[in-house]
Amino acid sequence: MSEGVLDPSDPEDVQKICDLYDNFEIITVDKIDEFRSRYSAYNHAVIVGKGPSYQDPGTLDPNTLLVCVNHTITQVDSCDVFVALDIDKLRSLAPQLNKAKVVVCPCYPNPARIDKSYRLICNFLSAHGFTGAFVPVNVPNMQACLGPKAHHPSFVSIGSLSDSGTLAAHFVTRILTSVLTI
């Protein structure tokens, strides 16, 4: 990279990139334990997805985490976590993302291209005034498409995914380890 240009794939530049976005927090591996502790009171999670299975979750117990997958964020007033795999969904839903306390997506969202990294998502979030936490995650599927550069050591890794619902379930059970039931 040329002098002064930050490379989102370079672990040494990640903190500098994180510091550029002061209206929201980017959760790195170094911050994951503190992030987990903020959500340790949640023992249960409700994951809502679109389609025929979507139902309004109604009033939830205070210890229940509400996780919205893709367009379900348009159906709620607020949620704890929003999850998406695709850059197009993130782009189209960016104005709605302020409803979420946390946004989770791959470091390199679908369609997997090395130039569409978490930095592009940070730009969407910043442009729309997002003030929560952003958790970019490593997903083996992206590494298969893009090679080893798609694994970012600065961010947490999560299991293989076939869809956003699976990402939501993996995030809740593997990252927010206090959740006992979904």
Give a verbal description of the structure.
- There is one protein chain.
- The chain has helices at 11-20, 32-38, 87-93, 118-127, 140-146, 164-175, and strands spanning 25-26, 44-48, 64-69, 79-83, 100-106, 133-137.
- The chain is an alpha/beta fold and 182 residues long.
- The relative contact order is 0.19.
Could you give the topology of this structure?
Layout: H1 11-20, E1 25-26, H2 32-38, E2 44-48, E3 64-69, E4 79-83, H3 87-93, E5 100-106, H4 118-127, E6 133-137, H5 140-146, H6 164-175
Parallel strand pairs: 1-6, 2-3, 3-4, 4-5, 5-6
State the gist of this model.
With 182 residues, the protein is α/β, with parallel strands linked by helices.
Task: Offer a few descriptive terms.
alpha/beta, 6-stranded parallel sheet, 6 helices, globular
Count of beta strands: 6
What share of residues are in beta strands? 15-25%
Described by its quaternary structure, the protein is single chain
Head-to-tail CA distance between termini: 44 Å
Stretches with pLDDT under 50, minimum 5 residues = none
N-to-C order of helices and strands: HEHEEEHEHEHH
In one word, what is the shape? Answer: globular
Instruction: Tell me, rounded to a whole number, the average pLDDT.
Output: 83
Identify the strand order in the major beta sheet. 1-6-5-4-3-2
The description of the largest β-sheet is: 6 strands, parallel
Helical amount: 25-40%
Radius of gyration: 16 Å
Broad structural category: alpha/beta
Number of alpha- plus pi-helical segments: 6
